[in-house]
Specification:
The protein is an alpha+beta fold. It has 5 domains: 166 residues, Galactose-binding domain-like (Jelly Rolls, Sandwich), CATH 2.60.120.260; 143 residues; 132 residues, Galactose-binding domain-like (Jelly Rolls); 182 residues, no CATH class; 52 residues, Golgi alpha-mannosidase II (Immunoglobulin-like, Sandwich). The protein is built from 19 helices and 41 strands.
Length: 957
């Protein structure tokens, strides 16, 4: 950046919001690369312990702090220590019991509050614990930069051990004071995806998690006192069950479903199940394998999807296929296309001027769209696949003695005025005179019969296929017709290939299947290319939809197909192999809302959901579909894409840390504490992949066949956690979505079990080598030092502007966990504007595309006020080619600093996120240390240089 531009930015800021002062925050102008003082990281003094400690359940401590409570009991909790629980109200609502106390704070600088909790407690119904200071709520309920004191999850966070969670207080609340009134309020859980306040705020119905201690301190990390018991990591044992019987159970379910889908007699409108059936068609283990009924079932179903789409465009725009649109149809065509080609140039079933399923090709025991009718006597009606005129089936009617039996359509045919020619091919065996015939009936718009029993007979006796036709003028009041086929004597008759020829004057023309399916795919592609979403997971799903839609268009022979190169570019954009250019205008010009050099995936291979995302960043299921769509099913050679998918998958493996599962057995969990879009902790059990709606453990490893990924998958089997996670995935239910993702389980398990891997274990596994992983694009660091682990998100939920907050998760070698939101030093290039935090307590953000008020639904009860309201967040300058975004609009640039310096406990992290500038920092106040990357010893008052796009991690000696 030029000096003149730096100065202009500074002057603009000085003339704008730089003098804004509130009770919670004061931002003052600094140099062009603005920075905060060293006091923000707490390394200016040598104090390391607590300023004050409140021991709950201890009479003397509670009295000394003036503790007052409502709906609270003292209980004996972890390690026999006293704790307080906060109880629900007699008539349960969102809010429960409270406790309030006065605690010491720093009159100058930052005061932190830490809570001590027992890690064996589990269950979302334990609710949440929310901190208040000076009567104001500290932080937000859902995905705020400062979160609640506790968010209970379904699984225990640290079994048999205490853990500690730390939050900062706004300095405006403590400035000039020696004490601060703190309060903890208990509350029920919240449902992040709810669309109303009633559904969002859940009642608190059982006592809260036990609260053991509350501390105030001035450093982000403080040393525990000798009387502060923490517990010990239990003995690590492999999970004994379940075992491989889960694979058998899963396989039994999907095989049964494949048989059911292959024999359906009605159209299947669920695209997940259509893909399921198309995949099953190629799998020898299923009844759908090369089953001639499958292409016909898929054809009739896609025809039905077409009519549904014409009636309701939401099928493509906001259904369960959101972002992918109707692209999954393209995948179905790629999977089973050769079998569908003979049917492409026939009319869509239900097309104007045609008889639905006129050749009885579609169906099971009975033809799809037809019903068996007995007018007199008795007989049988079946769909016969052994006797046909040329297709795959015919309709067979048998009468043993006497009667009138046949088939009637489920829907009538719309007619216009004029002469229509009706026809049917009929074959007979032992049929009497006037026995087998075609019957045409006419109805008015109200469904009343206005012309009936127009019978046209085949020859009697036994004969091969005979074409019976008749031309009938539509009665004046008729608007629809019903074409029936009947047998009225003893014997057997087969009917096939019914025909209807409209008059030349008819305006409603038949819709050809190739044209109908082309319309669905083209509409979907054109709609979604103009709405290419920003978040990485959404971008991948949308890019898959665009790519598959275009592959489908190519298969159908459409002149509107882009072709492989252009279509695949959207996939490359979505996974970070090419810059993401955003939605396109109607003429195909990309809007480039984030400029021409924004990548959806960091150089390190991590998705950019603004910053690091834990569970939401688990994209393996979509990467599996990327591989399948482009390389696996499509058969396109793209080694660059495959290698990149391997890089992305391996990068995620750094974010698995040792833990215990809900039953106390050793496992690995996804790191979620430092995740931007993660609302609860701990993360799911996962090695290569956790339980997901759209994927299953082993799937991506089995596709990519990378030796390391294979070994990580084998590790999950060795720890017996694969079967446990698979059981959970199975437990998600027998939906189309889960059955599709479980379809290949048995094959994938067989491959991984027999494959030779590299022998590697997940990087954070106990005993593995030390390392430092840094992702400067996401402001993300992961450190393994012995069996000590540190995760840090330096770019932490800074949606609106630079907030100077970092999120850390520290796990000691003996398994004690700390998590904290802490201040850090930053440098950035200001753009001259600033965002002022609004007085919101639920969300820290707005949701523009949903019917939710800015900041989310206000909680029930009295109006609450946000302690961070009025905080002024300066905006960092975006790249020159990025269009200006309004202040208060979430962007990946507004809050991203150029340089971060974060001190937490024995660690100092210095990160340079730029590509063209170097930064220096000092170790003054930190002490002697070791550079974990180079191994070099560093003195306690040393100036170090951090080169562009690099990170330095120091650990105290």
């Amino acid at each position: 950046m030029s000096e003149s531009l730096q100065r202009r930015s500074l002057l603009k800021l000085a003339a704008g919001t730089t003098t804004a002062v509130t009770a919670g925050w004061c931002w003052q102008a600094g140099p062009a690369h603005a920075a905060e003082g060293a006091d923000s990281t707490g390394d200016a003094t040598g104090e390391t312990g607590a300023l004050d400690t409140l021991v709950l359940g201890d009479t003397a401590s509670e009295s000394a702090h003036g503790l007052t409570t409502t709906l609270s009991d003292i209980v004996t909790g972890g390690l026999g220590r006293p704790a307080r629980v906060l109880n629900p109200k007699e008539t349960a609502d969102f809010w429960g019991g409270t406790l309030a106390a006065t605690m010491a704070c720093r009159p100058k600088g930052t005061t932190y509050v830490t809570i001590k909790l027992w890690g064996s407690d589990a269950g979302e119904d334990l609710g949440r614990l929310q901190l208040f200071a000076g009567g104001k709520q500290v932080g937000h309920y859902h995905l705020g930069a400062v979160d609640p004191l506790d968010i209970a999850g379904e699984e225990p966070r640290t079994p048999e051990r205490f853990y500690f969670h730390t939050l900062p207080l706004p300095t405006g609340l403590t400035e000039g004071k020696g004490s601060i009134a703190l309060e903890i309020r208990s509350m029920g859980r919240v449902a992040g995806y709810a669309q109303s306040a009633t559904d969002y705020y859940k009642p608190m119905e059982r006592p809260s998690r036990g609260i053991y201690r509350l501390y105030t301190h001035h450093k982000p990390y403080f040393d525990l006192g000798e009387d502060d018991l923490t517990g010990a990591l239990p003995a690590l044992e492999a999970r004994p069950s379940p075992g491989s019987e889960v694979v058998d159970k899963v396989n039994a379910r999907v095989v049964a479903q494949a048989a059911a889908e292959a024999s359906r007699t009605a159209p299947q409108l669920d695209l997940w199940y259509l893909e399921f059936l198309a995949r099953a068609y190629t799998m020898p283990s299923t009844a759908a394998y090369r089953n001639g009924a499958v292409p016909l079932q898929i054809t009739s179903s896609l025809d039905a999807v077409y009519w549904k789409y014409l009636a309701d465009p939401k099928v493509m725009t906001d259904s369960s296929q959101q972002w992918m649109g109707l692209g999954r149809i393209g995948l179905v065509l790629l999977q089973i296309g050769d079998a569908l080609k003979p049917l492409l140039d026939e009319p869509v079933i239900g097309s104007p001027g045609t008889i639905p399923n006129s050749g009885f090709e579609f169906g099971g025991a009975l033809p799809t769209g037809w019903r068996a009718v007995t007018w007199a006597g008795k007989g049988t009606v079946t769909r016969d696949t052994t006797v046909t005129r040329g297709g795959a089936a015919s309709a067979k009617v048998t009468i043993p003695a006497s009667g009138t039996v046949g088939l009637a359509p489920g829907a009538r045919i719309p007619l216009e005025q004029g002469a229509y020619t009706y026809g049917a091919w009929i074959k007979t065996e032992g049929v009497g005179s006037n026995g087998a015939y075609l019957d045409v009936l006419f109805f008015n718009s109200s469904g009343g019969l206005v012309g009936g029993d127009n019978k046209f007979f085949a020859s009697s006796g036994t004969h091969d296929w005979e074409h019976v036709t008749a031309t009938l003028t539509t009665p004046a009041t008729a608007t629809q017709a019903e074409v029936q086929v009947r047998l009225a004597t003893a014997g057997t008759a087969w009917f096939d290939d019914l025909t209807l020829t409209p008059p030349a004057t008819a305006t409603a023309k038949p819709v050809i299947r190739r044209d109908a399916w082309t319309k669905m795919l083209l509409d979907s592609r054109e709609y979604w290319r103009q709405r290419f979403p920003q978040y990485t997971n959404q971008a991948i799903i949308c890019a898959l939809g665009l790519y598959l839609a275009d592959r489908g268009l190519s298969f159908l022979g459409s002149d509107d197909s882009w072709g492989e190169t252009k279509a695949r570019d959207y996939v490359h954009q979505s996974v970070g192999l090419a810059p993401w250019l955003g939605p396109e205008r109607a003429d195909g010009t990309p809007e480039k809302p984030l400029g021409s050099a924004y990548y959806q995936v960091s150089k390190a291979g991590i998705s950019k959901e603004l910053g690091y995302a834990g569970n939401y960043g688990e994209l393996q299921e979509w990467l599996s579909l990327v591989y399948d769509a482009v390389i696996g099913i499509g058969g396109v050679e793209d080694d660059k894409l495959r290698d990149h998918l391997v890089t992305m998958a391996k990068a995620r493996m750094v974010f698995r840390h040792p833990a215990l599962d809900a039953d106390g057995y050793r496992t690995m969990r996804i790191e979620t504490v430092v995740g931007w879009r993660d609302p609860e902790y701990p993360g799911k059990v996962a090695y290569d992949e956790g339980n997901k709606w759209d994927g299953h453990p082993l799937r991506l490893a089995a596709l990519l066949k990378d030796p390391d990924l294979t070994s990580y998958a084998k590790q999950s089997i060795a720890d017996n956690q694969f079967f446990h996670v698979l059981q959970e995935t199975y437990g998600l239910g027998a939906s189309a979505r889960t059955n599709l993702n479980l379809l290949s389980t048995a094959d994938d398990y067989a491959y991984i079990s027999d494959a030779d891997g590299s022998g590697a274990l997940l990087p954070m596994s106990p005993g593995q080598p030390d390392f430092v992983f840094s992702d400067e694009d996401n402001g993300l660091v992961a450190v393994k030092h012995g069996d000590e682990i540190l995760y840090a998100s330096l770019y932490w939920r800074a949606r609106w502007g630079v907030n100077r907050l970092a999120r850390v998760h520290h796990i000691t070698a003996d398994g004690i966990e700390r998590s904290a939101t802490v201040w850090q030093d930053v440098k950035y290039v200001p753009d001259g504007r600033a965002h002022t935090e609004p007085d919101w307590v639920n969300f820290e953000f707005a949701v523009g595309d949903l019917n939710i008020p800015d900041g989310g639904f206000p909680p029930p009860g009295d109006t609450l006020h946000q302690a961070w309201a009025g905080q002024v967040l300066p905006l960092a300058k975006a790249p020159d080619d990025v269009p200006d975004a309004p202040v208060g609009k979430e962007t990946p640039f507004a809050g991203r600093a150029s340089f971060y310096r974060c001190v937490y406990g024995p660690y100092l992290i210095a990160m340079n996120t730029t590509r063209d500038r170097s930064y220096t920092f000092t170790t003054q106040g930190f002490g002697a240390s070791v550079d974990l990357l180079s191994g070099a010893k560093v003195g306690g008052n040393t100036e170090l240089c951090v080169k562009p796009g690099t990170t330095v991690v120091l650990r105290q000696r």
